[in-house]
UniProtKB/TrEMBL annotation:
Ranges that cross the membrane: none
Region listing for Disordered, in residue ranges: 958-1001
Organism of derivation: Clunio marinus
EC class of the enzyme, as a word: oxidoreductase
Protein name, UniProt field: Glycerol-3-phosphate dehydrogenase [NAD(+)]
Pathway: Phospholipid metabolism; alpha-glycerophosphate cycle; Lipid metabolism
Keywords, sorted A to Z: Cytoplasm, NAD, Oxidoreductase, Repeat, TPR repeat
Lineage of source species: Eukaryota, Metazoa, Ecdysozoa, Arthropoda, Hexapoda
Amino acid sequence: MSKTSVCIVGSGNWGSAIAKIVGVNAKRLPQYEDRVTMYVFEEMIEGKKLTEIINTTHENVKYLPGHKLPENVVAVPDVVEAAKDADILIFVIPHQFIKGLGAQMVGKIKSSAIGLSLIKGFDVAEGGGIELISHIITRHLQIPCAVLMGANLANEVADEKFCETTIGVKDQKMAPILRDLFQTPNFRVVVSDDVDAVEICGALKNIVACGAGFVDGLGLGDNTKAAVIRLGLMEMIKFVDVFYPGSKLSTFFESCGVADLITTCYGGRNRKCSEAFVKTGKSISELEKEMLNGQKLQGPITAEEVNHMLKTKNMEEKFPLFTAIHRICTGQIKPTQLIDCIRNHPEHMNRRLSDKITTRMPSSDPLPPKENAIFRKILKCYEMKQYKNGLKLAKQILSNPKYTEHGETLAMKGLTLNCLGRKDEAYDHVRRGLRNDLKSHVCWHVYGLLQRSDKKYDEAIKCYRNALKWEKDNIQILRDLSLLQIQMGDLEGYRETRHQLFKLRPSQHASWIGFAMSYHLLNDFETANSILETFRTSQTVENYDYKHSEFLLYQNQVLQESGDLEKALKHLEEHQTQILDKSVVKETHGELCLKMKRFDAAVPLFMDLIRRNPDNSKYFHKYLEARQLTDSAQIIQFYKEIAAEFPSSLCVQRLPLDIAQGNAFEGLMNEYLKKNLRKGVPPLFANVRSLYVDQSKVAIIERLLLDYLANLPSIGYFTKADQEAGMAREPASALLWTYYFLAQHYDYQRNSLKSLEFVNLAIEHTPTLIELFVAKGKIYKHSGDPIEAYRQLDEAQSLDTADRYINSKCAKYMLRANKIKDAEEMCSKFTREGVSAMENLNEMQCMWFQTECALAYQRMGQWGDALKKCHEIDRHFAEIIEDQFDFHTYCMRKMTLRSYVDLLRLENRLRDHPFYFRAAKCAIEVYLKLFDDPLQADSLTEEADIENLSPAELKKLRNKQRKAKKKAELENAQAAKAEKKKEQYNKSRQQQNQDGDPEAPVLDELIPEKLARAEDPLGKAIEFLKPLQLLSRGLIETHLLTFEIYYRKNKLLIMLQALKRAYAIDSNNATLHGCIVRFIKLLGKCLAGANEYVRIVIQREIETDLPIIGKSNKIVNEEFIARNKDSAEALIAGARVYYDDSSDNKTKAIELLMSSTHLKSFTLSHAQLIYSLLKNGAFGNNESDTEKFLERCRELYPIAIDFKPFTNDSTPDKIETNDENA
């Protein structure tokens, strides 16, 4: 006769205690298999898997610490693996998970198996009733199921203290098998055939225990507690009698009944947590985490399920204790109201009289049927965006004197008004409604929607939470709350909300996916995959469509991110036939093989991908990695073989050039250049520009091109070898493209004269080719002449006015020449009519234009306009984040899960984008300038003392005043015009809202004059700095800007922190060097008077991380110059420190500046910086040195307009005469 195999499904506190008993009995008794499997939900405990800990130490360190489990109890993380061979399945898990686990086990366990439920609780049945857990097990798994309930506190059972228990089983043949498995000298078993009553007692006693805990928390004494226990027992008996008639009264006096009730009411965790709930004021979920190590209280959940049934049957008043406990747990009433709720209990009064008692729902003021039907129509009108009809219907209710202050109607009217743009009225109505009905979930929900429309997400979340106090299971409120939580990055709150939605709608796909994703985003990959796997195994998919395919790819992504590559690979191989995107399958498969060093398996995968798309360079790199090829000759040979198979592939022609050297490179480069020059490929230089880091390759390219140039005009071939080989003559355009390439070649090396020579030859050859004028503009830009650069781009765009790219390029060059008005007119060719180009570009979030505008305004000293553009860019990034709100539900519905996760992660680092960094840097620099040199008030010119002015000075002052007056009049006219446009815009927006779009929050108007006169420039600068500190910590500029701001605020520790981080990135940075010197000076002045603790911290940091700050300025500067003697930027910084330290060092500083001009690292930007410093007196007043420097710069940069002698033709307009820049 075969032995009986046992599996315990669950490993919590109670499950582990039972495992001690079952493990010992199974090993002791011959009719049972020694090995007992125990399903354990896998968790990580201090870096180790819980199953591994249990199987090695034989202790459940999380849920039953200090108690050894029998060695024959084996922890298994897969429920199917644990249960597949079992004859007896002991279920001891939280009851809300029974359906999910049961779905996994369907068809995968023995048909002859029997179940035993130790689970105390119910499940909500369809139609409003409750369903017993044993019934669920029987229905799902098609096996008989008994129950075990009793006065069995888990820790006392584990300590082997004497107790009794009750097993409820109908089949008397099963009774001895189950009894023997559990019976011990200290765990005595009584068998009953009243199965339903036994199970119901085990669930309902947890509700009563919560009431006992409330009594203890309130300090009401033992008499009150005894009354609550007795009334609880009476309601338990009555509940069974009403809903499960036929049960025996004697069952309630077994261990499962009164004994279990007394034990739980005095020592169980439901009582303890309920007492803490009253004393601490914390929520049930918080107490579960603190007191139960994450396990769930069954009392509040069971109370909710029972109340759901009572409410459906309209029997809440018949069970006042159960109802009161549920309302306390959900926050509907205070614990202090418990006794009032049971003071007139039916057990205390005549039954005829008690039937007349009714309890009014606390949620809202109900309307009569007629008005309620109208109210439902209001809701329908809101959903259908028929707002005017909704207002008419609301008026019908509110015009009735009885309901003029009906809260929910006022709230809905307010919501409707908000959609029509009448925001002030909307808030007034919603707040009135809320004041009149604070217990209405509708009012709170509407108030949350109003706050959400104003982007006040934190306030909206509070409103939704208040709404859930009165309607805990409202699906729509929970969904809205989850959307706000994920938008705000509240991942812990999002997980809790998705869990609640999962419990309420376990049959919906989105419930499972959202629940899994909440764990994924918290990096709990094991739990996320467990949920996804449970969902996958519970689905019956007939057609493998795109959604199922995306689901599998998302699950594989979770597995990869968990680090379990083996499992991810196995999953991919198992389900690859169900995934529709075969390229992604192969890419993922190949990547996994590479990460796991399975190179042989990766080779055919990437070769197949190359054959699918031979122009994807990534496939070639991955293939070479898989082949582990390092020899350049072998790699080049591979590319030749592939080229034979795919002769038109661009990758196989270009990629070998990165590897080849010497003669091999020259041969390949020769063929590559000739082929592309022959075809006339405009981006040829851009394709090979990355090769220019190797000077030997640059020399070869130049030699080849000059050889072509020598041969093409004379013989019509690139080389004489081509002519001798009898090849066809090259087309006439080959010479043109050779000129074009050489122009770019020399421009890249900043040889402006030669590059201009070749581009002019190309233009002379073909004067209508747009690319030539673009190249010429770039040459002038790189040579320091932005005026001529934009003129060349203007010429280019005139050749094709319909080319948006050239148009945009021309506008950018105009902005760099400070021609803002011209740039706006240029862009107006492609913007919406009826609106100024600047406004339309702002609406289109054209950030490249606004960034260049901001920099142009900054160069011109128009600080307010520069700040306006920076703030507009900042708002664009905020709008992009807001726009992502709509994708939360869309991605979940369409199952684009991988893209959705990428979107959420992008949102977290969005302001790391270069556009934001440039705008923030510009704004910070402007605010620093305004702090150092605030704008004077206009009235100061009027208060000038004119009595002592000479006639010439007085005339100059009058001219200035006239100009200021004219400017003010012009600004007023522009402001009036802008106000008129704004009114028209608001009217159009209001009309749009009437068509159904909610009113967007009105942002403050960005007025340049107001921005330039900010009350706290440093505070505004910090607002731009914070995202950089969070997302751009790897850029040294972030820390240098931090230093500059807090240097002005005299915050020593923050300055030191910024210097420390910058020093770790680049200790030889020239700007950092200047900051260090300034900080050393400041320390000498301020350290003695600083707080004692500040001094200690600074001295410790200097000793450990920045010893350079402990040196003198002179030593620091000399060491820096010696260390960076080949860096022009470093010499300039060193010269500035010399002169700032002492004006006696002027000669030394000037010599250092002049010596920097002879370095290879010296560039045009360095020359412009030095000239600016000399011109502005940073090294004193010395015209001879300035002129000497100018002569050197004219020699190095003959085209740069900054160094040309002053003439009207050569000097750019620093301040233009158009209205925009007046």
